[in-house]
Amino acid sequence: MLESRIMNRRTTVSADSDALATLEAEARRRGESLSSVLAEAVEEKAIAIRRMRKPRLGLGRSSDGRSAAETTAEPVARPPA
Questions:
Q1: Confidence class of residue 26 from pLDDT cuts 50, 70 and 90?
Q2: What is the pTM of this model?
Q3: Where are the domains of the chain?
């Protein structure tokens, strides 16, 4: 049987005092620890970074039958006169 394990790594974070005060207030509002709110923020940022890095591949067919190579070989703008 395979088990899924969540691995946490302890680290030290330096951050702006106002930003930390905001997160501390949010932790109190939720009744959670600052650590759990910080972990959530780190995970959200990591997801956003992964999403930005993910290659975007488009699959489809052109309406005029030209290949992508033919389409991208055309100049984007005219050279200056």
A1: very high
A2: 0.57
A3: 16-53
pLDDT at 54 over 80: no
Residue matched to tokens 């905001």 = 22
Which band of pLDDT confidence, cut at 50, 70 and 90, is reported for residue 1?
Answer: very low
* DSSP conformation letters of 27-49: HHHHT--HHHHHHHHHHHHHHHH
Dihedral angle, C-alpha 34, 37, 41, 42, nearest 10 °: 60
Q: Residue 11 has which token pair?
A: 């680290």
- What b/e sequence results for 22-33 when a residue is b if at least 16 CB atoms lie within 10 Å of its CB, and e otherwise? ebeeebeeeeee
